Amino acid sequence: MAKYQKVVQWIKEKIERNELKDGDRLESEHMLSSRFGISRQTVRHALLVLEKEGLVEGRQGSGNYVRCAHQSGKTEKENTVILVSTYVNAYIFPNIIQGIEQVLTRQGYALQIMFTYNKFATERKVLEDILQMKEVAGLIIEPTQSALPSPNKAFYEEILERNIPVVFFHSYYENLPIPHISINDREAGKEAARFLIENGHTEIGGIFKLEDGQGHRRFTGYVEALLEAGLEVQDDRIVWIDTQDERQDLKLCREKVLERMKNCTACVCYNDSVAHGLSEICRGEGIRIPMDLSIVSIDNSQLAQLNMVPLTAMIHPMEKLGVRVAMQFLELIENPDADVTYEFPAEMVVRESVCRKKQV
Q1: Is the pLDDT at 358 greater than 80, yes or no?
Q2: CA–CA dist 330, 351 (Å, integer)
Q3: How far apart are the first and last CA of the chain?
Q4: How far apart are CA 28 and CA 26, in angstroms?
Q5: Domain residues of the chain, as ranges?
């Protein structure tokens, strides 16, 4: 056995016997060098091996500490968290995933990512594959078409029956008792509409996504704001779209959008992607933003900042949400009965896409 391996084995055995616990400080390099009669360089090599295995964490100026000793002896699959997301595109999802990965990696977990592309059939296959795995640490899932009755509900119920830790992120199915971490979509829709009302707008349209729960909750908030201001909710000012419409920049429903927005001075958009599509339609028709049509969006992604008229937008915390997802997930692992649901409050960034409507 190589000299450094003796150090590795000794520390691992102490962790397995619970003589070293998560967060415990290891002996100094000098002490380990004296204990085993080896050079400090050899000790450093042993600590580096343990660090790569996720068992030790070096802290500059402080020493080396045990991390995730509670996972010692587990198989690789037991340390694997499955993350299921709808999309892989460069909208908000990479930032969310980055936040999740940062936290879980520090805690010694490996992250395996799968995508459903917001299709029930793909989600079904993903869930089937997961349920065939013998051991996983838990699941972090963005549900597919969360506003619709899910044909995959039975798979989620089986996950719960097996006591597999699971949380939803970004959205959730209201008829499943699975905790979620998201923004407060109802408040986001409400604050977006309220801001337009405060700027003198009374003819306010809306474009919302039909198959995702976020769209319904944002619409609910929009309606609440109008009713509280004594304004009528008019069906002919609302456009419901689906994923294909969104991904095609509203080109597939251009005429409907123009018809429904023609008597509006402002619009609440489901997200930045939809607002960008609406902006492109307006540019083609000579409709000026914000003079002819003011727009408030939701997400505050790079798309909001790069839009031809930078968008006033409700903030999606993205990476912070990802970090919170991971933290709530870890809490669920430690306490399976904990209610780890969390919704970020609505906040806004004001840019040039809204103007005050002149009173006649």
Answers
A1: no
A2: 37
A3: 88
A4: 6
A5: 3-71, 77-183+318-344, 185-316
Distance CA 263, CA 71 (A): 61
What does pLDDT average to over the chain?
Answer: 91
For residue 334, give the 3-state DSSP assignment. helix
Q: CA separation (Å) from 223 to 237, 272, 314?
A: 12, 20, 17
Q: How far apart are CA 199 and CA 209, in angstroms?
A: 25
Identify the band that residue 69 occupies on the pLDDT scale cut at 50, 70 and 90. very low
Distance CA 193, CA 296 (A): 8
Same fold, 3-71 and 77-183+318-344: no
- How far apart (Å, rounded) are the C-alpha atoms in residues 265 and 115? 38
Identify the CATH number of the domain defined by range 77-183+318-344: 3.40.50.2300
Distance CA 27, CA 45 (A): 15
Q: Where are the alpha helices (DSSP H) in the chain?
A: 3-16, 29-36, 40-52, 93-106, 120-132, 153-161, 185-198, 213-228, 243-247, 254-261, 272-285, 302-306, 319-334
Do residues 298 and 269 make contact, with C-beta atoms less than 8 angstroms apart?
yes
What Å distances lie between residue 256 and 135, 164, 248, 278, 283, CA to CA? 49, 45, 14, 11, 16
Q: In the CATH hierarchy, which top-level class contains the domain 3-71?
A: mainly alpha
Sheet containing 204-209, strands listed edge to edge, beginning at the edge strand earlier in sequence: 238-241, 204-209, 266-269, 294-299, 312-315, 348-349
**74 has a pLDDT exceeding 80:** no
CATH code 3.30.420.10 for 185-316: no
pLDDT value at residue 341: 97
pLDDT(257) > 90:
yes
Task: Answer for the pair 204, 266: CB distance below 8 angstroms, yes or no.
Answer: yes
Of 156, 164, 215, 149, the C-alpha closest to 186 is: 215
CA separation for the pair 330, 306 (Å, rounded):
36
pLDDT of residue 70: 45
Both structure tokens of 242: 């689906």
pLDDT at 90: 60
Give dist(CA 100, CA 57) in Å, integer: 19
pLDDT at 226: 98
